[in-house]
Design goal:
136 residues; mainly beta; six-stranded antiparallel β-sheet; four-stranded mixed β-sheet; 14 strands
């Protein structure tokens, strides 16, 4: 058994996000573990750039309403307690509405030295403000 030393909260890199985003690393697994988990806090209107994860990503909404966008223009709303799985290599973005939002982001490292996350261009205001849908 081991207690993992927690690092201080840190501001997310401006090159990967629009708006103010902060995270706490919950775990960045060391070999043989490839587990990654962050608690991520988005200010109103903040969002990630387009990105994909080699092995997929799971988002669990803790508070606020999360927006998750796909390249086909769909913008899903996810509410507290809901969990969304993004498939491997699917480009997507996630962010907050006009209120604060926090989610736990879970993904895996590749284990072979290749990038676990591939970052792309910022999400435009038009994409962010697209029609929203709920998974009923």
């Amino acid at each position: 058994m081991e207690f993992i030393k927690q690092e201080p909260s840190s501001k997310a890199p401006a090159g990967w996000f629009t708006g103010d985003v902060w995270w706490d690393v919950i775990v960045a697994g060391q070999e043989p573990s490839r587990m990654r988990a962050n608690l991520v806090r988005f200010s109103p209107g903040a969002r990630t750039n387009w990105h994909s994860h080699a092995l997929g990503q799971t988002l669990h909404v803790v508070s606020g309403v999360a927006l998750i966008g796909t390249r086909d223009g769909t913008v899903f709303e996810a509410h507290p307690g809901e969990t969304v799985a993004c498939p491997p290599n699917e480009e997507h973005w996630h962010g907050a509405t006009d209120r604060f939002m926090e989610h736990i982001a879970l993904w895996e490292g590749t284990g072979d030295g290749t990038p676990e996350t591939t970052w792309a261009e910022p999400v435009t205001d038009q994409q962010y403000n697209g029609p929203r849908t709920r998974n009923q």
